[in-house]
Design a protein that fits this description.
The protein is mainly alpha-helical. It has 2 domains: 387 residues, no CATH class; 67 residues, no CATH class. It is built from 22 helices and 2 strands. Strands 1-2 form a two-stranded parallel ribbon. Helix 22 links the parallel strand 1 and strand 2. Helix 14 runs antiparallel to helix 19, helix 15 runs antiparallel to helix 17 and helix 19 packs across helix 20. The longest helix is centred in the first third of the chain and has 27 residues. It is globular. 37% of the residues are buried.
Length: 460
């Protein structure tokens, strides 16, 4: 556990060097210049239907001059991620796993997600993106855990209260973003279908929850602001291209995630941990190989439906915030499917032979190799280099110097601010910057937030 926590330290440390970017300034300006309630309603009618995430993005800490709070948000999100994963392990295995094992599993999963995240800057270090996307999947894991407990009669504070919590989480999660909406629809369509074919005792609750999902998805999808926002993209709604590109990107990202060494070793270690647990996993228990294959196909399907909306609504993948969501769901689903495979083949001679051939010392060596790989490749490598080569520190200094220069310009009543381009752009925490075009939307957001006429970079 100590070694895992040590590897998390760089990600926490980098949080204290982050700075607002892009949409942060736009939402903060809207909060400062308008009544919060009226602006919240205005977002629904003029920009998007994200009725849940809009509550938070309009409360951006920089709107209240709280940059330090802004810099604490990534740490809070990582802790929430750990707690949500710990809760789902507790919900599935109850007392079958010791607390230390559940903590280590949860830390490993959280660390691996940070390590393999396609765009960690947009994933946790950029307030608007992190709140809109990452928080939704953390709540999604909490929701699945609570639903699993409900279906197995393990209620928190009574059956009615537990059901109310589930219903509230549905409403909240759908309102975060379009990906969350589509995933919830997909998940509950599967749940509804299975309740009519196999789990008939769950039919009533599956119908009730599906109606709730359908109703709030309708509100989200048909929000007037969606049409306004879609008008900015000329290549939207190309079905054939969207399906093809989403399919290719699904193959690309899944291959990237499963082909790296830490993923393979952590999967082996996870199997070793759960193989001896004779746990009745309730409605998730699979009785036939065919059903096991079908359930496994849910993984690429979920990744696909996370990627598809970006292509459908804009014609391009554009940014990797949606792929970050797909990545997190992929990891969670992979572990759940591994549980099913292990339980299905638990008594198979092949599994028993593997078990006999592996000793604990070898597993310790594998674990240490994984920790090294997590530190020297992908986001782990980027985090350490951003710190050790002074990129994060340099970025922080440049941004603070820029703020000081802006306030100096304002003090002198100079309302056009010309900035030097950033020399330090850390791989892990840098998102976007202003451009040399003063009419660019990022520049306009900057200017509005600081009360300037225009802002732009010096041309190279």
């Amino acid at each position: 556990m100590f070694l895992l926590l040590t590897l998390l330290i760089p990600y926490f440390y980098l949080s204290f060097f982050i700075h607002p970017a892009a949409d942060d300034y736009n939402y903060a300006f809207l909060t400062i210049s308008n009544n919060w309630v009226s602006e919240y309603i205005n977002q629904f009618y003029t920009w998007n239907g994200r009725y849940a995430s809009n509550v938070l993005v309009l409360l951006n800490p920089i709107a209240f001059n709280k940059l330090f709070v802004y810099q604490l948000i990534p740490i809070v999100l990582v802790l929430f991620t750990f707690l949500s994963v710990y809760f789902i392990f507790t919900s599935i295995y109850k007392a079958k796993l010791t607390n230390i094992i559940k903590i280590n599993l949860s830390l490993s999963l959280t660390l691996f997600y940070l390590f393999v995240m396609p765009n960690i800057a947009e994933g946790i270090y950029w307030f608007t993106g992190a709140i809109t996307y990452h928080l939704s999947v953390v709540l999604g894991v909490l929701y699945v855990s609570l639903l699993y407990r409900y279906l197995n009669g393990n209620y928190l504070f009574g059956k009615i209260f537990h059901l109310i919590m589930i219903a509230l989480l549905i409403v909240i999660i759908i309102g975060f973003n379009e990906i969350a909406m589509v995933v919830m629809l997909f998940f509950h369509l599967l749940f509804l279908t299975s309740s009519f074919y196999k789990y008939k005792s769950k039919r009533a609750i599956s119908v009730i929850l599906f109606i709730i999902v359908l109703f709030f998805s309708f509100i989200m999808f048909y929000a007037p602001g969606n049409e306004v926002r879609a008008g900015f993209f000329e290549n939207k709604h190309q079905l054939g291209l969207s399906i093809l590109m989403s399919f290719l990107q699904t193959i690309r990202f899944i291959f990237d995630w499963v082909s790296n060494l830490p993923f393979i070793i952590l999967s082996v270690l996870f199997i070793y941990v759960i193989k001896d647990i004779n746990d009745n996993i309730g409605i998730l228990k699979v009785s036939s190989f065919k059903k096991l294959i079908l359930l496994s196909l849910i993984i690429p399907m979920v990744v696909f439906i996370c990627i598809f909306p970006a292509y459908w609504s804009t014609g391009i993948l554009g940014q990797h915030r949606t792929v970050n969501v797909a990545c997190f769901l992929f990891i969670i689903l992979w572990l759940i499917i591994l549980i099913l495979w292990v339980n299905f083949f638990k008594d198979h001679s092949f599994i028993k032979n593997i078990e006999k051939s592996i000793n604990k010392r070898f597993l310790i060596v594998l674990f240490l190799i994984t920790l090294i790989a997590l530190a020297i490749t992908k986001n782990g490598y980027n985090a350490y280099t951003d710190i050790l080569y002074g990129k994060a520190l340099g970025f922080d200094k440049e941004m603070n110097d820029r703020y000081a220069a802006i306030y100096d310009f304002k003090r002198k009543s100079i309302l056009t601010f010309v900035s030097n381009p950033l020399q330090n752009k850390p791989s892990t925490i840098y998102v976007l910057d202003i451009t040399s075009d003063s009419t660019h939307w990022i520049n306009c957001g900057y200017a509005s937030f600081y009360g300037l006429k225009s802002v732009y970079l010096k041309p190279k």
